[in-house]
Structure formats: structure tokens, C-alpha cells
Amino acid sequence: MTGLAVIISLVLMLPMVTLAARLVIDSLRRIRRQSRVVTSGARSASKEDGSFMAVLGSGGHTSEMLTILAAVLRDERSSRITRLQLVVADTDKGSISKASRLLEKANVEWYIIPRCREVGQSYLTTLFSTIKSFLSSLYMVWSSQPSLLLVNGPGTCVPVVLAVAVLQALGGSRCICSIIYVESVCRVETLSLTGLILYHLGLCDSLVVQWEPLVRTRRLSDGRVEIKDCCTILEQLATHAGSGMDDAEFVNWLDDNDPLKSLRDDFVFPKHPAGGDKSVVYFLGNSLGLMPRRSKEIVNREMDKWGSMAIEGHFQGELPWMPMDRYLLKAMADIVGAASVEEVALMNSLTVNLHLLLLRFYKPTKERFKLLCEGGCFPSDHYAFMSELELHGYRVEDALIELYPREGEHTLRTDDIIDAINKNKDCLSVVCLSGVQYYSGQYFDIEKITAVTQAVGAISLWDLAHAAGNLDLALHKWGVDGVPYHYLNSGAGGLGGLFLHQRHHSCNDGPERQAYLKGWWGHAESTRFEMTNKWEPEPGAAAMRLSNVPMLSAASMMGSLETFKKTNMTELRTKSIIMTGLLEHKLRALLADWPEEQHPFGIITPTDPGQRGAQLSLHFKAVPEKAPESNLTDFTLRVHRQLEDEGIITDYRNPNLIRVAPAPLYCRFGDVGRFCDELNRCLSKQ
């Protein structure tokens, strides 16, 4: 297999395989509980509980199904399967031999039915071949009586599913059968034709998909697949690689088979402090991303255009400055999960955009005047909240609700956030949290918190400075009112972004108009240069723009977005989960060599991959006995400096915290191993 095939078809398939296998076992358990006596003619018999039927397709469908079957049979509860029945089309020559090799120890009953459609077959003849296959499937299902049917997309499965549905609709007690459909891992944004048929006809009890975009667009039963246990995934990958999870060969294998590895070449890395050709490990993308090579090229090109064209540069060249942001909006909308480009705008900096959103949405009344945020939020946010409250005549102590973790904990519990919102439901005006908390690295449940916020009548704003480009976001689906965000490898002080949900777009003007700060560049482009001073807003978020887009900042961002367009947030997020999981595993293995009471640091970022992005925060809490320092801060700073001396770039934050952020765009799995080795040496130095 190629590297792409290994990562996409194996690494990313593993959580789906795990869920599918669990559904199979759990379904058989329910069926066993609900077993009943059936009657056929004058004869009564007890229906056999654990008969499990699966349909094999050909090629990739067969490989995926066999991977799922292998996971089912490895489960210690697989003894519930009393009969394993496999169905193939009569023209499929390879599936039986493939399955026989993989399932050689299993007792398999084989069923062969006519293929319903060949590749390239006309729709007219397909009708007749499908009827023939359906009739054969009817007899097969009637005679074999499966308790559970597992299918994953080949056309062969459609007549089998229809046969089960028809027999159940006719009241055939011989066919009490649950149906699980597992969509192919290669279907990222749309269901296959088979999936569409089964989904819209409601023919399956459970529908399993791998990818988040499918979950966003369809309400599927048990449809969302998340990686909850990175260690298990890593163990399975190591087995596939033929090595141990802690072996250097395994890390090399991950890098060799990384489909995103070529993206690393799009970036410029800083020089190693010692000079020479030794590479740098850059784990600081959450503070400032590396410079994309294309950014430098595009910025230089626009500088040359400025010199050669002057004012005409607004309208000429590959990137005319006046409509410059239009060339960036599609990629930006995809990154944050907007419904269209009209929900996003590129302008200003993050803090300015946060002020603009607060001025639009923070409309305090005598009853509703409070802002809610996480305690210890980034200073820019805190000062913005302070400013807005003071401008409206409120004291911070009276109107700002700051939520802190429970005593002895480092992260906020979602239930505590929701309880605080409900407790203050009558006085809340705006809730504004960070998507990812900069210090702890905690990823908040944006969808759930937004829903609760809006249910009590408050506005939901989010600062996504550390989330945009880091997490697979779905801001439109989640119903978030407004969001500021920034950077995305576009440079220090880079162009900010703003999201405004489309339900607010009608309030840019007209009878429902919301008051907000306006500027020339928010005026409709079609009449902007008529200088009438009669407000005609641009549609959507663009109405909140104040001035024209700064050309050099936009040029820098374009270089970054060109790299983002080579992949998608689902692929980036998946690599990030695996890479951060590997980092956590190695750090915990490192700590295992120390007595627990002497652990020099703890990982305060949530262990659940669904509650963190590409960051682990190491909170230092003890100075080793033989260390030259007695002060914890001095010790932490020395470790940080020594890592830098070895070319490991991380981030120190008060008090006594080192943030480690392996960005999937340009970091390697080997960087994780090198960081942990160097950290261990730093901790051990006398």
C-alpha cells in the first residue's frame, strides 16, 4: 500500500472499525436478550440468536469489511456469534480466497447470489439483474434467518437489505434481523449511492460514518465517530507496522506513511542555535506559525507590483488589492465551517474584531447586563470585556462572571459551565469563551455551550485564536453568533478573521437593523465610490469591515491558505489527534520512571482527544532532588532554555508551564520522539 492508503484507509479507519465491531457485539447481545419463539407452519422452534451475516463486495469494500470482521472476532465476546454467514456475488472471484485467508479459524457459511449490476452495465439491464438478485436474496434470508446483517456499501448488499426489509414488513417472524450499515472510509463529504438508498429509505438500524462532514449534513444514528483511546489506535498501528509502540522504527513508519508529510516542505524553519544543518523541532505553532514559503513569494510579488503599478495595483495583477479578500474567503469559510463566504470576513486584528462584535451584540439592559468568560482568559479578551463594561457604566466586579476550575483541577467541566449559564440565565447578556483555552489547551464543547447560551436568551461569542486551523469547526451548524480569530501561519500581528452567522445578516440594515460600527469598506462595493454617505451594507459579515484589506497581510495569509487548500481539516485533525496522542503516551512513559510523588511535571490538558487540540500543557510541580535549582520557576525556565539550545522550540508561560504544540501541517512524528528524549535529558541534568 502507498503511504496515503495506509494512513487514510488504515489509521483513519480504525475508530470506525472499533465502533462497527462494538455495534455488532452489542446488537447480538440485545438480540440474545430479546430472543423469541417463532412458528413455521405446524412446527415451532427457538430462533438461533447469534447468526451474523455480512455482505462482501470486491476490492476496497472487501478489505474494509474483513478488517471489521477481524475486529469482531478478536473481541472476547465474539462467542455470541453462533453462525458466521458471508455473502458474495457470483462474479466475485477474489473475496472468498481473501476472506478464507483472514478468517481461516472461523467457521463460515458461504452464500452466493447473482450480482445486481456490473460496472458499465446499462440501467435497463440493471433492472432485470437486480430483480434476479433480490429474488435470490429473499430465499437466502428466508432460509438462513440471520439475527444481524452487516453491510458496507457494495451494490450486492442492496438486494440483501431489501430482502430483510420485505420479509420483516410481511410479518415474517423468521426474519427478526437488525441491520448495520458502515459507510466506506473513502466517503468524506457525501454518502455513496448505496448509503443514500439505505439512509433515505430508513432501512438500517445504525449507520456508521468515519468523517465529520457527513455528520454535519445528516442526522445519522450513532453516526459520529471520535477517537477516544489514542493508545489503542497506536497499538493497532504498531502491530500493522510490525514493531512495538515505543520502538523508533514505529515512529519512522508513521512518518514514512504520513500523507501530509510533503506539506512540511511548504514552510521555512528557523536555524538551529548550534548552526550547521541540524533540524529544528518547532512545537510553538499555537503562538506563531512558521512562515510559508509562498507567503514570502506573494508578499515580494505585491511589493514589486506596488513599485511598478502604484495605484493601479488595486485593479491589476494576479491579486488586485481592492477585492483582495475575495480570493481568501472560500478557504477561510472551509476552515471554520461557515455555510458560505458571506459568513466570514478578513479584517483588522483579533482584539479589534472582538470589540466590534461586543459593540454589536452586548446591549445591556437593567436585567441583562453580565458577561461570562473563563477565568484566566487571554489578557486581550479580558481587557476587551473590561472596556465594554466600563463604556456602558458597569464595574468589572459587578458585571463580569469569571469561571474557574474546581479546586485541585486545571480545566473547566462542561457541566459546570452549563450550570453557571443556567444559574445566571436572567442576567446574562453575552457568553464569550475561548474555543481552546490558551494556557491549559482545553477544547470547550462549542456546540453544547452555544445551545445552552442561546436557550437562556444570551448571545454566544467565541474567541477562536487557538482553534481556527487547529480543529475541525462547524460554526454555522453549531449556530455560533459571532467569532473573532487570527493568524493561521500568516505572521505576527497577521490579518484577523470574523464569523457572523447568517441569521444576523438581515440585521445589517432595514427595520431590524442592529447598531454596529461602520466603515467605508463595509459599504456595498457597487456604490462605494459614489461617496453618497447613504449606508448600503455589503452582504453578510463583510458589512462589518471598516477599511480596505491591508495588502501585505492579505498576501501573507494567501501563502498560508494555499497550503491549507492542499488538504482539509478532517485530515489535519486526524493526524493531530494521533500525533498528540503519541506525545502524551511518550511523556507518560517518561514520568513512569519517577516515583509519583516526585513527578517533575503533570499534563494538565485533558486526556480525552475530543477535549484538546494540538497542544499539551506541562505544568511543572517538583524540582528533582539532584537539580541545581531549589526554585521551581528557575528549574522550569532552565529546562525550557536547554530545550531551545537543542533546537526544540516550545513556549514558557507563567506560572511554571511549558506548552508543547505539534502542528500537523509541518511537524513530524519523529519530532515527538526527539522532544521527549531531549526533555528526559534536561530533567536528568545535574
From TrEMBL:
Cellular component, GO annotation: cytoplasm
Taxonomy of the source species: Eukaryota, Sar, Alveolata, Perkinsozoa, Perkinsea
Quaternary structure (record): Homodimer.
Biological role stated in the UniProt entry: Catalyzes the cleavage of L-kynurenine (L-Kyn) and L-3-hydroxykynurenine (L-3OHKyn) into anthranilic acid (AA) and 3-hydroxyanthranilic acid (3-OHAA), respectively.
InterPro entries linked to this entry: Kynureninase, Oligosacch_biosynth_Alg14, PyrdxlP-dep_Trfase, PyrdxlP-dep_Trfase_major, PyrdxlP-dep_Trfase_small
First-tier enzyme category under EC: hydrolase
Binding sites annotated in the UniProt record for pyridoxal 5'-phosphate: L350, T351, F378, P379, S380, D381, S434, D463, H466, Y485, W520, N548
EC number: 3.7.1.3
Family designation: Belongs to the kynureninase family.
Biological process according to GO: 'de novo' NAD+ biosynthetic process from L-tryptophan; anthranilate metabolic process; dolichol-linked oligosaccharide biosynthetic process; L-kynurenine catabolic process; L-tryptophan catabolic process to kynurenine; quinolinate biosynthetic process
Subcellular compartments: Cytoplasm
Species of origin: Perkinsus chesapeaki
The keyword Hydrolase is annotated on this UniProt entry: yes
A GO molecular-function annotation: kynureninase activity
Keyword line: Cytoplasm, Hydrolase, Pyridine nucleotide biosynthesis, Pyridoxal phosphate, Signal
Name the UniProt record assigns to this protein: Kynureninase
This protein's pathway: Cofactor biosynthesis; NAD(+) biosynthesis; quinolinate from L-kynurenine: step 2/3; Amino-acid degradation; L-kynurenine degradation; L-alanine and anthranilate from L-kynurenine: step 1/1
Signal peptide: 1-20
Gene: KYNU
NCBIfam families: kynureninase (TIGR01814)
Catalytic activity: L-kynurenine + H2O = anthranilate + L-alanine + H(+); 3-hydroxy-L-kynurenine + H2O = 3-hydroxyanthranilate + L-alanine + H(+)
